[in-house]
């Protein structure tokens, strides 16, 4: 009777393990998707950082280019070629600064989104693992008690036949 009860309990525990494994399947898919999204966002962040560095280099080059002209150039007319080229450079610098600011905002937003996603997936993973650990702790305690019970029954049977369990 004890063996059949142990077999029933074993089957029940095996079913619980199977159910837990089935419960983990969607989480694995979500974890895989999160990892894929995480890598994609990292790639995009690297691309944006490269673009930002390129824009900074362009800005530096423009600033260096402005210093190449002597300061003693007479500007007789506001419509002269030098005044027009200076205005164009100033406009280009303003546009580059605006592009840099927009890229910085985008990078900050993406980094924030990435951090939020990472925290959410971490919570999901920890919650699932806590659930599995709780189930395993319960099953372990049950089987420990079941083993002790069976051991005591066997000890009593051996004593009924006049045998000492410690000698066997």
Automatic annotation (TrEMBL):
Q: Which residues form a coiled coil?
A: 38-65
Main localization is: cytoplasm
Output this protein's name: Dynein regulatory complex protein 12
Q: What does this protein do?
A: Component of the nexin-dynein regulatory complex (N-DRC), a key regulator of ciliary/flagellar motility which maintains the alignment and integrity of the distal axoneme and regulates microtubule sliding in motile axonemes.
Subcellular localization: Cytoplasm, Cytoskeleton, Flagellum axoneme
Keywords (A to Z) from UniProt: Cell projection, Cilium, Coiled coil, Cytoplasm, Cytoskeleton, Flagellum
Q: Does the keyword Coiled coil apply?
A: yes
- Keyword Hydrolase present in the record's keywords: the answer is no
């Amino acid at each position: 009777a004890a063996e059949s009860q142990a077999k029933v309990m074993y089957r029940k525990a095996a079913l619980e393990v199977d159910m837990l494994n089935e419960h983990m399947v969607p989480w694995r898919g979500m974890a895989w998707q999160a990892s894929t999204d995480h890598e994609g966002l990292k790639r995009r962040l690297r691309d944006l950082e490269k673009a930002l560095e390129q824009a900074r280099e362009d800005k530096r080059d423009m600033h260096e280019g402005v210093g190449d002209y002597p300061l003693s150039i007479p500007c007789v007319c506001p419509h002269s070629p030098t005044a027009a080229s200076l205005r164009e450079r100033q406009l280009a610098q303003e546009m580059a600064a605006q592009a840099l600011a927009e890229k910085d905002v985008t990078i900050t937003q993406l980094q924030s989104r990435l951090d939020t996603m990472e925290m959410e997936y971490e919570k999901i993973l920890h919650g699932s693992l806590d659930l599995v650990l709780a189930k395993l702790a319960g099953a372990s305690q049950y089987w420990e008690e079941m083993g002790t019970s069976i051991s005591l029954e066997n000890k009593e049977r051996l004593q009924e036949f006049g045998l000492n369990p410690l000698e066997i």
